[in-house]
Amino acid sequence: MIRRISLIWFSALAVFFGCSSPSTIALLTDYGWDDPYAGAIQGVILSINPEVRILNLTHAVPSYNIREASYVLVTAAKEFPEKTIFLAVVDPEVGGSRKAIIVETLDQKLFVGPDNGLFTDAIRTFGFKRAVSITNVLWFRKGDISSTFHGRDVFAPAAARLSAGKNMDDAGAKLLEKDLVMLERTPAELTEQGITGEILHRDHYGNLVTNIPASILAKAGWRAGMALEFVLKYQVVTAKFAQKYSDVAKGEMVLVLNGQGLLELARFVGSAGDSLRAMAGDSIVVRTVGSTEPVTNSSPAATATLSKPVSNRVK
Amino acid sequence: MIRRISLIWFSALAVFFGCSSPSTIALLTDYGWDDPYAGAIQGVILSINPEVRILNLTHAVPSYNIREASYVLVTAAKEFPEKTIFLAVVDPEVGGSRKAIIVETLDQKLFVGPDNGLFTDAIRTFGFKRAVSITNVLWFRKGDISSTFHGRDVFAPAAARLSAGKNMDDAGAKLLEKDLVMLERTPAELTEQGITGEILHRDHYGNLVTNIPASILAKAGWRAGMALEFVLKYQVVTAKFAQKYSDVAKGEMVLVLNGQGLLELARFVGSAGDSLRAMAGDSIVVRTVGSTEPVTNSSPAATATLSKPVSNRVK
Amino acid sequence: MIRRISLIWFSALAVFFGCSSPSTIALLTDYGWDDPYAGAIQGVILSINPEVRILNLTHAVPSYNIREASYVLVTAAKEFPEKTIFLAVVDPEVGGSRKAIIVETLDQKLFVGPDNGLFTDAIRTFGFKRAVSITNVLWFRKGDISSTFHGRDVFAPAAARLSAGKNMDDAGAKLLEKDLVMLERTPAELTEQGITGEILHRDHYGNLVTNIPASILAKAGWRAGMALEFVLKYQVVTAKFAQKYSDVAKGEMVLVLNGQGLLELARFVGSAGDSLRAMAGDSIVVRTVGSTEPVTNSSPAATATLSKPVSNRVK
Prior knowledge:
The structure is a homotrimer of 315-residue chains.
Chain A lengths: L1 H16 L6 E6 L7 H12 L4 E6 L7 H12 L7 E5 L10 E6 L4 E5 L5 H7 L1 E6 L16 H14 L10 E2 L13 E3 L2 E9 L5 E6 H7 L6 E6 L2 E7 L11 E5 L4 E6 L4 H5 L6 E6 L11 H8 L8
Parallel strand pairs in A: 1-2, 1-3, 3-5, 12-13
Antiparallel strand pairs in A: 4-5, 4-6, 6-7, 8-9, 9-10, 9-15, 10-14, 11-12, 11-15, 13-14
Helix pairs in contact in A: 2-5, 3-4
């Protein structure tokens, strides 16, 4: 009897004082670290739910770059516990006809932002559970809704309401997975010319992350210790495929598996991106050394791969 | 009876465990994201009030730029709930004779920082309630007070003490609104030459925010859809006045109302600031297309406006 | 009796609801503010301890620069309360033979990161209490451990477990202070040529912080108001030794004591680092004006000092 009363007390207190683990909203935008926008959306969130925990993943994905943001988002989101709410905004078409959406993935994570492909990698990695279009005006920020700052007026209020326990079904009409805009990428695959893929992310060290997973490298029979050759931006470069950056001398190019198990081009204590003048979206072919005519001699296969359109649905 | 006891218990517990919504201190400085200074002030705050919530608005307003910081601060602060404490430091004259102040605005927000004009836009937007000069040494950081880092030694401790429930009147002598340093700006007004104003902020996209509000554009009878012309840095540029960025083609110049209802110059998926070589503080004239002789033909009215000093009291 | 029961209740509730002041993990890395890495380690921490407070000191110490990171870390860490856990990662040799360590200092702070000299200044400033090597696999992140991202796989989980109350002795074998990698610096000392030292940090204003403390300047009898001369990167520059930046005209070079009581070279509202093309690690000699032949006339003493190796153990 005393135990039952205690339990009721404890639960009541937990609710009353908001003392259980707080909900978390993790922010990812291209709003920059130097402008008022990232601060403004934090203010909107706190005004709606003063108990929530706000974390900043980054506000500096390259401006307007939905493709790169999608990779950065999934890479960070992967490490978070279930029920985390991700508020992600890279939204060049703000105020236009693109939808505002909430997506729940199979691992119980929630993603709030524009329907422009930004959640492509999250949905492919975590699995689609359900989605809604945010159309209920009661979910918006109070006052006028601008045509230029939906992060503040639509997305942040929606994330805050979710964090305060509102059900996403209340935000608007259900969407099917096929209704959502998804990015397409150059598939990572083993071909006669080698393994094809694309650069997903150029990080601030200048490391170039590809979408080529360890499994395809294993299928090709390539192991750490081998010298490989890659074709990128009409350059053919030889580099050691190694366990870690420091397996080569300072300044040398190296191929490693990054923290996601994806092939990454790096220079040890240097910048691969700078010297290769490469960036996210560039196509790449990786092959064993000398396995193909140099691309500069206009090898038809390799150039065909390089000029292949990177995406069919979103530029 | 049992209810009364419960209530007392609940209140006692809330105080004892610090479980009610925490106070929030929001930081805005030019201390940079790469240096120890922003971290140091967070440490000072936590040492005084371990319960407070610390949020970073930005630490990257342009170095020493009080004018731009004032706009960035008010734009973010506007979205925060009452009782939020803003610790803002852009302080080139640190250690000199400028006062250290706390300002309370009519919407119950508190601003802590140097008296150099940094709170101009906050006071004009939210309304002045009261202010004090921070002179009580018990409010300072323990130990020696440097002449070069008042963010750590004076402002952060004051913000932390406010967050812990101290009354601002205890910090030092009362100040009147007229005692405070205020910035002056080129007034946004409808003149014979068009609408005059100034650039308040160049954001990281390269968007140029002016101080020209929607109301003056409405007064001039200019509506979204019209082509307008602006004179900025001796350049005359024509651009569509539109609802949203994506109303023009990629790379084209566009005029929109930003999230504050202020006229903003942008390039859709591009940088207006880069191509116009313009920045905060520059004067601007906006007019209908062809309404005036081009400024490059030395139109006296327009050039007079452009060379008008931007501020009388603070450079 | 009632009092005793209340006390037990209170303690039980505090533990149950996690309502006492949360543990704090403060992050310092070279992971950048624009990449997924800083977000990922926050996710790992929250997955292990959902109650912890996470603060970001900086993620933008210069890439791979252990020397500069060591100074930035100690400067921020100094201001934090005891029991704060610092998770610091600048780790070019990730995946190699360098140890992963936890260091406790005499002021009850905990430092988690690679054993590569990163904690040199913290240990020298706060005093060494004890250290362990993180080798217990139960302390690692679940799943495969990468060779390229120990911040996520080793250091963040260790910091999170410490924050959740685990004892550092459980993480691995004890290390002695002499087992740890420590940086060496050009000693700050009064010599016949003047005071020698090195640049510890170039901040984002372009201020150059030296390791020359106020005490050595006092020993030399140099006081604010004097004109001094410094030799840096083969340049001889005269500057006023002043109380504060604004003691000289805008754009002029000035020597001040920074917030740590260390000599700092600055330009008032300008960048000393830009004009001197100097950075962390550069040696410096400070002397009274005209006290020595100019270094450009190949004064042997001064050039000897300038070419002296900056570190014997870590490049």
